[in-house]
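Supplementary Methods, section 5.1.

A reviewer requested that the exact input to the structure prediction be made available. We therefore reproduce it here, unchanged from the version used in the analyses.
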Amino acid sequence: MNKKLEQNIYKDYIFSFLSSLNLTQGVWMLYLAYRGLTLFEIGIMESIYHITAFSMEVPTGIIADIYGRKTSRIIGRLISVVAVVTMLFANSISLFALSFIFTALGNNLESGAGEALVYDSLKELGKENQYMKISGIKELFFQSASSIALIVGGYLATIDYALVYKFALVLAIITVIQAFSFTEPNYGKIEKEKNTFSTFIKQLKTSIKILKNDRKISFLIIVLEVFSVYFATEFFYVQNLLKISGSTEFQIGIVLASGSVGGALMAVMVHKIDNIFTPDQLLLFFPILAIIGFWLMTITNIIWLAFIFLSIIEGSLFVLIGDYVNRLIPSEQRATIISFQSMLYSILMIIIFPVIGKLGDVYGLHTAFIIIAIFSTITLGSLVWALKSKSDKFKQL
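The structure derived from this sequence is encoded token-by-token as follows.
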């Protein structure tokens, strides 16, 4: 059994690489614009995605905790295949929206399940202290695949947008097959009640109680997701900004891929930084760097350098806070609480993404990026100030 659990780690590297070869990530907004959607309508599509993610995030996390992380991952990949097929053949707003719904469900079923599967495999092996290092390596695979996907996807888009989605479909089918190869760890299995609904409610109440009683978990989640929403919004809209400035899809792919490479390299190194500095120091330092990065994104001439800088911060925060949060979460509620984290991200994206799209339509994306810089300064600055007054609580991590 131990050998199979150890194999989960290496299999997850492969799964992360294959599932991250998302050729559509750098061109989907351009594709929708090509199909006739305005920036506001594209923002609405993204909101539909996050409304679905918000409403289904916790239920799918509970499914992973009750029925197993492997099962959740398999179902998620199957639904992702359906999402790609729907997008490929969509010819109306409603079908585009349906594709985004399927995409959200597929990602929901994977989000908490994959992370919980890896962490609890390590915990059962008594190697959970290696999670930050392993998470960094996983991020390297993720970012490397993203870099390849952005370049290849951008190149294929210059030939035919449909070709991008056809290749994406083949890759999605491969990940379904690979998802069957994982071994479910014994850690994290919860005792089921007499009926599924009672188990569901008990799991929900227990997870909410943990979040309410341990403010460290809540704070870490808020910091990461606030940053992630601002970063993701600029990641998507910078594609349109660069396109307007005269860049080709392939050139845009190069810029985005460069950001992925920077984030990947930093993610691998972050466990070494964690050995030098205390968690409270790192949780002050990286958000301040993030604020600087968002302001740099408002300078048109260096926007690609600013994007790479922000990508490095993103890779660092994802690995760092991911490890801190997992140290604090009980195995039985791991997938559910991680789903609460994703739910917060969805709530913020539902509000922010279409607003930035509307501002981009009316005033231009440069002005929209200035608005993001202002709000990042206010929100992340406030969180940094709050952390400074309670830093002793994080020295115990």
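DSSP finds 14 helices and no strands in the chain. These observations are discussed further in the main text.
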